[in-house]
């Protein structure tokens, strides 16, 4: 349960420094993971980004203070991290549906987002199919692009568009023809995070033994122990659900921590929308 305690420590850190200009790196250090891994973990478990959680909590506290004090709106704007009353009013209205002035007059209803507390259900009502495999390092070849991490929905859409592009230009068929490694199928992986520009490097590739083919790049996966989880059904539905179960049920009830290599999503079926589509999620563990 140390993993759960680390995550709660990071959330408590956010709450304690909610009105300060904290960075994702500051928060992630509390959970002893990288900034990118913490953001991914947070979105999987809560369905919102770290940035959005902080914004919602600030606007919740701002509404409470607005209703219970005679503090000037311009002072509240600065207190909650906004350079102008206009920017503050825009963010306030986005969450509460009313302006700060209307809220002070008691018009409309305010929307409160409570402080997060991690609670883990260890009943294990539904079994998770997985296997542990130790592998030496291996190579994937494929294509890559960098994507900005601001806004979880936008990132998902961008990656989806990338898959569509490589499908239309023939890259997917080419990769499937090259596939000659132990992992059978296409691999999706986020292999690098840059905190300077808040971007990830995302790959569409396949395991391949041999010289790098023209027009493709290669990435070396380090030797790791892997927990491999099986997901069956439409990819857009079952993969997010499986990720959530991995972090909310499997990790808290096991002694493993996330390893140093990137996690891999392995797509084994030609039709990702099929009710019997097979996907494997490879998570490095230690």
UniProtKB/TrEMBL annotation:
A GO MF label: sequence-specific DNA binding
Keywords: DNA-binding, Transcription, Transcription regulation
Pfam family, one: GyrI-like
SMART domains named in the record: AraC_E_bind, HTH_ARAC
InterPro entries from the UniProt entry: AraC_E-bd, GyrI-like, Homeodomain-like_sf, HTH_AraC, HTH_AraC-typ_CS, MarA-like, Reg_factor_effector_dom_sf, Tscrpt_reg_AraC-type_HTH
HTH araC/xylS-type domain boundaries: 8-106
UniProt KW Transcription keyword: yes
PANTHER family per record: RIGHT ORIGIN-BINDING PROTEIN
Name of the protein in its database record: Putative HTH-type transcriptional regulator YdeE
